[in-house]
Design a protein that fits this description.
This protein has helices at residues 18-28, 38-50, 101-115, 130-138, and strands at residues 2-3, 9-12, 54-61, 64-74, 84-92, 121-123. It has one domain (2-138): Aminopeptidase. It is 31% helix and 24% strand. It is of the alpha+beta class.
Length: 155
């Protein structure tokens, strides 16, 4: 477990913390599609928690989840067969922004990727606000040199 200067704890999510995670996701996608029924949601949650390549990371402060991201480790047959990491669903509770918590969480994710022997970690954001892009710059990610293409597979 890594701690930030404000007594924030960075760790993997626990199985009983799905409600707190879903609360955080409301800050990410305000108009998100509805979740599936409880049996299907429980199945997805179980798969999410038991997949050794998926790391749901959280920041805890004031005895609550205040930020999260998902780090997925992807096997690879290039770069000496070293894997790479993909970070998604980065979000911080509105009351806890601009306190360095998300930066600490990004550092924690990068540390875990390094422990998994990843040669790189990538993330894609659809946010265009300069403050968001500067945040990722300051967290050690470069926005130059690559072009991201996304094909959304909506039903």
């Amino acid at each position: 477990m890594v701690k930030a200067k404000t007594d924030t704890k960075f760790r993997h999510i626990e199985s009983d913390e799905l409600p707190g995670l879903l609360t955080l996701f409301k800050f990410l996608h305000i108009d998100d599609a509805p979740l599936p029924d409880e049996p299907r949601l429980g199945q997805i949650w179980h798969e999410f928690l038991t997949d050794s390549k998926v790391h749901c990371l959280v920041a805890e402060a004031d005895n609550r989840l205040v930020a999260t991201c998902t780090l997925t480790i992807i096997p690879n047959l290039t770069r000496g067969a070293t894997p790479y990491g993909l970070i998604e669903n980065v979000v911080t509770h509105g009351d806890y922004r601009r306190q360095g918590i998300a930066t600490g969480l990004m550092n924690y994710a990068r540390m875990l990727a390094k422990e998994e022997h990843c040669h790189k970690v990538m993330l894609i954001t659809q946010r265009q606000e300069e403050s968001t892009l500067r945040f990722y710059d300051n967290a050690g990610f470069q926005r130059n040199g690559r072009t991201a293409f996304v094909a959304y597979l909506d039903k």
